[in-house]
Amino acid sequence: MPVQAEISVSADHQAFQICYRQDGLNGAVPVNAKALENGAYQITRTGKDKPLAVKKAEKNADGSYTVWMDKEIYSGTYDFTFPGITDLSQNANAVQPIKGLELQGKNPFLRVLPYLLVALAVLLVLLAFYLILLGLKKKKNVKTIKELFETQEVQVVEERHHVRAAVPATMNITLHIQTAGPRCIRCSWLCRAALLLVEAVFVMCILMTLNYPGSILRWK
Q1: What pLDDT does 219 receive?
Q2: Helix/strand/coil (H, E, C) string of the chain?
């Protein structure tokens, strides 16, 4: 009669609790001394080829066995084989292998949690470094929008000041009027540059009224 293994995970997620049973029999079925050897337990995650490392195997008072693992046991599906373990009958019935056994162990998320914490710490350090550089750059080179507008206004005022300074406040105008005869009339006066155009038009109107052809307007 084949031997079946009932398997669960210990409360501390460090070991598998294994009880060997046979149909029609109560309690644990005695097995040979192979059950105390580490090599008698081939345990893998389903779909994986690399077996998990067994630290040691112990027999409990109730006839069950505790197989301690080298690393913590996480929830998932496992495959078990028990090479060399048999019951004590004359037939030496072997323990049947188990495929795809779902077991509740430690939360798998906790396996990657340390790596996530390290990645988060690195991210925070990089963020802090970036903010420090941004603050230093802002103090040295970056102006606020208000400061930019004020700078532009100062530049416009300076440009306007230069334009105004380029035009003289007053201008001396000399007017030579050549008449029909040999006589030449010379007029000179001081006018404001802002009213130059108006006064020039006014003079031209006078000349046209006096009917002096060939009049020459010359600036000094």
Answers
A1: 40
A2: CCEEEEEEECCCCCEEEEEEECCCCCCCCCECHHHHCHHHCEEEECCCCCCCCEEEEEECCCCCEEEEECCCCECEEEEEECCCCEECCCCCCEECCEEEEEECCECCHHHHHHHHHHHHHHHHHHHHHHHHHHHHHHHHCCCCHHHHHHHHHHHHHHHHHHHHHHCCCEEEEEEEEECCCCCEEEEEEEEEHHHHHHHHHHHHHHHHHHCCCCCEEEEC
